Amino acid sequence: MTPLTRVEGAHPVPRPQRASTSLSTTGVVLVLTLLALYMLVPVYWLLVSATKSQHDLVTTPGLLPAAWHLGDNLSALFTAQDGVYGRWLLNSLAYAGAGACTATLLAAMAGYGLAKYRFPGRETVFSVVLGGVLVPATALALPLFLLFAKINTTNTFWSMFLPNVVSPFGVYLARIFAEASVPDEVVEAARMDGAGELRIFRSIAVRMMAPALVTVFLFQFVVIWNNFLLPLVMLQDEHLYPVTLGLFTWQSQTSRLPELQTLTLVGALVSVLPIIVTFLLLQRYWRAGLTAGAVKS
Question: Worst-scoring range by mean pLDDT, 101-110, 184-193, 200-209, 282-291?
């Protein structure tokens, strides 16, 4: 035996615990599978139900497909009540698109200012913003209604647009991303070259923060799209309804008009498509935004 192969006196090498590792992996896979089923089964039920006729919907098992009537259901959906569902979709796109764009711009400006400028009370302002994150939106619906009622702007586009242009969570994310993505040296170099503060923000900071701003936009877009309580207390004209409130009104009438049950299910399926398309188009920037600032240099 050569000196290189002698093992006398050497410490024993611990053997990998493959059994416990395999058991742990199996447990994790099982839990994730159950969670995936918990989330996907309702989606599957909605997809199957949207393809059924009204008779099949109440006479066949919910998870089993029946005769294919999706085309007829879609045609009935967009022609019912003079095509009011299409109006609800456009309203949701207007509220969510305009609100998310404005909220993202304001969050970027506020987050950049809190990250790059030193002024008295900066941390106090940021603490107030963090406190705003903890306040549930449902708690603000009634006070907002009273405020808009004072200036006679309830049941208008502005009563849905203005409350959604402020996003404390977006300001929080924008500050974190601005600190991580916009180096102070770059800002100082731009100032030395004669660039103004607005130009630095527009030409440099916004581009460096772009992935993070896409994340803020997506979060705010989904929040506004799924909002239900605010339009419920603000709007009375059904032509101003977003799709969430419109489907609720149909669902509340199914005991009197059973055919609205099928339209409600198909409408719920169609209402998910804009969010899926938005995520697919912006997922590359969204992933980068989620990981930005995760590691400090």
Answer: 282-291
Element (H, E) at 38: helix 18-50
Q: What is the pLDDT of residues 219-272, one digit of tens each?
A: 899 999 999 999 999 999 999 999 999 999 999 998 888 889 999 999 999 999
DSSP state of 10: P
Whole-angstrom distance, CA of residue 281 vs CA of residue 206 = 20
CA Rg value for the chain: 27
d(CA 246, CA 250): 6
How far CA 137 is from CA of 134, 141, 159, 248, in Å, comes to 9, 7, 15, 19
Q: 114 and 205 in contact (C-beta within 8 Å)?
A: no
Q: Which residue has the tokens 């799924």?
A: 226
Q: How far apart are CA 231 and CA 219, in angstroms?
A: 19
Q: In this structure, how many other beta carbons lie within 10 angstroms of the beta carbon of residue 6? A: 9
Rounded to whole angstroms, how far apart are CA atoms 5 and 126?
A: 63
User: Residue 297's pLDDT is what?
Assistant: 47
Calpha distance 246→116 (Å, rounded)? 44
Instruction: Using alpha carbons, select from 207, 218, 221 the residue that is nearest to residue 178.
Output: 207
* Tens of pLDDT, residues 4-34: 455 555 555 555 566 677 778 888 999 999 9
Q: What is the pLDDT of residue 11?
A: 57
- Helix or strand run (H / E) with residue 84: helix 84-116
- What is the spatial distance between Cα 245 and Cα 85, in angstroms, rounded to a whole number? 11
